[in-house]
Amino acid sequence: MRTDLAVIGAGPAGLAGALAAHARGVRVTLVDAAPAPGGQFHRQPASGLRAARPQALHHQWRTWTRLHAALAASTVRLLTDHHVWCVERVSDGRADGFVVHALLGPEQERSVELHATALLLATGGYETVLPFPGWTLPGVVTAGGAQAMLKAGLVVPGRTAVVAGTGPLLLPVATALAAAGVSVAAVVESTGPRRLARYGGALAGKLPEAAGYAVRLLRHRVPCLARHTVLRAHGDDRVTGVTVAALDAQGRVRPRTERFLPCHTLAVSHGMLPHTDLATTLGCRLDGTAVAVDDQQRTDVPGVWAAGEATGTGGASLALAEGHLAGRSVAARLHGTPYTPAPAAVAARARLRRAADALHRACTPPAHWTDQVTDGTVVCRCEEVTAGEVREALGLGAGDLRSVKLLTRAGMGWCQGRICGPAVAGLTGCRLTPPRRPFAQPVPLGVLAAQHRHEPRAEPTPPPAEEGPS
Amino acid sequence: MNPLELARARPGPAFTVEFDGRRVPALPGRTVAAVLWEAGVTSWRSTRRGGRPRGVFCGIGVCFDCLVTVNDRPGQRACLVPARPGDVIRTQEGTGHAD
């Protein structure tokens, strides 16, 4: 398969980028791992569930219907159920290009190739959850995970939930769970209103949205505990409740404020991290934990653009603006025409980046969260490495995440450190540096073996005919 | 109110899958994780070192906590794999490979 532009990720950024480039005459292929486009934000109920009113679980529904209709009316080729595990830069002598490798469907046993002249990485992000005693119990899920299961599977994890952590995801998740019939015992947010108010200017645009959630939470009688944190999740084989406590202005737990909240589910989130695997494999420069881009959303690798959460988490509206500008830039580059940015998108991007920046500064986990992480708390969920083992590695002289990993196996498991990375960084004081992973996800060995192409060889020389007795 | 009512879902007829020897109803389109959640099951893996129970954590295929054995194939992410009629789902012990 060949295409002008391969867009990886069919969330808001990828959809906007694909449509903007397509509208300017670019042949576009849009690739996504999910069975349908939308990404996490516009994740739709599984088609087999035949939901007549999916918008009941969604925000910005009109944006989705507009994107979906534009995609359907376009000739953008959509490849769903394609799990991209690697992108290579190739040169065929005339022009540079890229080969996108993707595993097919839920089976993931067969890999296909897509050849593209340009690449837009709209790979999105995933949640950060910092550890606390009991966080590995079944029933403790990420806030986004609870939302994803609800949106796609129309299913909830239990009758009673606590939604906790920090950041802009907590309110929509609590609201959605409550609307779906879950009794939400509390929203536990570690940031206080005074801290949010400090960033009021940049966040003014977000106020109507926040007010809307507040009203709905009131209607469902969901109490909001600001400047509180979850100390531990209780239970034997599944979570049965959590202990929460108030925080002081320095982010320390205030003594004698602990209280127990019974629940079947704890949905927890401490922020988001960008998916940067494909970008780092291609050699794109990162800015902190996100892919670095210029004002046209170009990475420093020629032919590679990036947009949305991959370039820094900031929400769906920001992703749309970034994706749109990336699509215009790609079209200009491929046609050799001048880049003409859309003024509205440029303005929206600037405004929404300021708001995202303010939210990141305001919604930080409690400053002293590591105080609550007992030595026995599992930090690396895959390899079952405890906080005590990680601290011991620090005592042995480990000065970066890689050394900690080599000494303890934290980050060496299935998820490749995606989940425990921020926790290990926080516990050891090491900088969180996204590791370079050659593959973005597990690949069957047979698929890798099949990638090895043999040079065509001349017919082997037949062995000399046996000479008969003379 | 439940999520199916909220989204006014009119799913096709339920089918049956097997989970650890018992029959569990499944709605078309749902993942293995969604089917098990609906049945009140929250864990379907025991860890390699501690033998501790695990289920869904990230829900989007990133964390690999929800690994499960489906039709004798271990290491499937329950949050991604759709349930199919007649699937035999088993709690995954460790890696799921006898050693």
TrEMBL record, chain A:
Region of interest (Disordered), residue spans: 448-470
Domain BFD-like [2Fe-2S]-binding: 378-425
Keyword Acyltransferase: no
Keyword NADP appears in the UniProt entry: no
Keywords: Oxidoreductase
Domain FAD/NAD(P)-binding as annotated: residue spans: 4-313
Compositionally biased intervals (Pro residues): 459-470
Superkingdom, natural source: Bacteria
Pfam families reported for this sequence: Fer2_BFD (PF04324), Pyr_redox_2 (PF07992)
Name assigned to this protein: FAD-dependent oxidoreductase
Organism: Streptomyces composti
UniProtKB/TrEMBL annotation, chain B:
Organism lineage string: Bacteria, Bacillati, Actinomycetota, Actinomycetes, Kitasatosporales
SUPFAM superfamilies referenced in this protein's UniProt entry, alphabetically: 2Fe-2S ferredoxin-like
Keywords: Oxidoreductase
Protein name in the entry: (2Fe-2S)-binding protein
UniProt organism field: Streptomyces composti
